[in-house]
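Help!! Second protein's tokens look totally different from the first
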Amino acid sequence: MWGRSRWAFLAVGAFLLAGCAGTGDARDRITPAPTAPTTVPADPAKGAVPVWFVGGTPAGDRLFREVRALRDGGPDGEPPDHVGTAVTAVLEGRTDDPDHRTDWPEGVRLRSPVTHGNGVLTVDLAVAGPLPGPAGLALQQLVYTVQSAAGSTDPVRVLVGGEPASSLLGEPVDAPLTAADPYRVRALVEIDDPVDGVRVASPVVLSGEAAVVEATLLWEVRDDAREVVRAGVTSTTEGQTFAPFRLEIPLPPGDYTVVVSEDDPSGGAGRPPMSDSVRLSVR
């Protein structure tokens, strides 16, 4: 696990740097298309719920958000349990991206629906046998997912078998859990749409969220031979904080990987830039 306090210091220092690296004449500058809201709340009417998984970055493992479609309704025509759907996806590792994973081991499931009352979100888990530790980012996966799906920042109480537990996966859970500092646990660049492996029409429309210096994002498109066929610069709606981005890239039919990454104002003196990528086919 990377040194969180050290990275937090470096991240703050990087955000204070003025200016950013030049892009050069070889890059296309794309004017950002209209953006979505900064956060992606659960929207049962549109069948969307945020789910958080773990992926590797140059700063160590971080949380990546996937916006998940709700497919199943409840019994007797009840609306879908979007919080339960999101938590189950985390516990079972139902990621849409092969670069992502869950830090939850097998043998844990949701025992009953998540409840929300008295300023606390309560998750009751059923655990089959002794579980390994340490937790990695498992508990933060759960907290971020429950809060995102419930549309609340209230802390998350974790029960095991209907009873309070002192610890789970080697971490204390005797008090309600709060979301950790996003600059320390979230990937600083995330592509929300499209999902990995889809077929899309041209122009390819990408949207996501990033926290980058001077709101500057770099992007490039690689073909199936991993050659860069297009590259450019776009921006988030605001710098030095998590803010949305959206861009359109015209591409001929073929198979591609699109990579979106931070700029590097340090000129290589700091850690490598964080990035996110999506593999897709243009029809």
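Here's the second one for comparison:
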Amino acid sequence: MGLIYALGAFLSWGLVVPVHFRLLDGVPAWGILAHRIVWSALFIALLLLAMRLMRRGPVVSLQRRHAFLLLSALLIAGNWSLYLWAVQNGRMLDASLGYFINPLVNVALGALVLRETLRPLQLAAVALAAIGVVAAVAAAGSLPWIALTLAVSFAVYGLIRKLVPIDPILGLGAETFALLPLALAYLAVAPTPPGQGTAQWLLLMLTGITTALPLMWFAAAASRLKLSTIGLLQYIAPSCLLLLSVLVYGESLPPSRVLVFGLIWAGLALYALDAARPRPRPVAARAPGDRPA
């Protein structure tokens, strides 16, 4: 189930979300962010009501560990806003580099914070992906602050969602409701963009679903999988984004990016091969005096 949730999240971020936001080019980045929060809050509230999860008590309790959800809310909001700003200001290369680096930060956090160990094939997979990222950085000429900020912010967000033991829907609800007053305040004072008809309003309302569902799936995957596994699977999203930009939107694909994706997908193949190999079962210890039959 953890793998299914992860695939759902990363395929959504790599295919569905980019197409959705491409249709909202006329809306300012802060406006899209505010609408994402407002409609996500409504969607989650209806979902909580339908599943009767409200009977468990308040979404955010007074336990110290749940206070970290306020930090995760700020991290994801900052990540969203910086990504939207980069897209609308011609810094898409910086943003894409950030999401290439992000899985490696996940693997590093898994090893340093959670003491996750990697088997030899997994180490080789991470090394191949790291070489691919270095090649992408070399092709760009520098490593800008936008890429670092996007990579680290989402990696720390994933770490918090793994460490805080709370239902994925309740956790996302806590994050969204914490940001809701800021979003409503922005929409109350921001001017309405011209030409905002019924179709655009419908697209803005749908941001609640395309925002909330992948985040819930990601939180569910983070609670079930190793952070290093999530880090490698995360390359699915930028890979899908590349295919979408080239095959659908007609963007050019330089040879350096072909090399980058070849190395990254080779690393994913190694990681999948290692995960599929049968593991020997541990031999149960015999009591003193026992003899084999």
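Reply: Different proteins will give different token patterns, so don't panic. Residues 98 and 147 are 4 Å apart (CA to CA).
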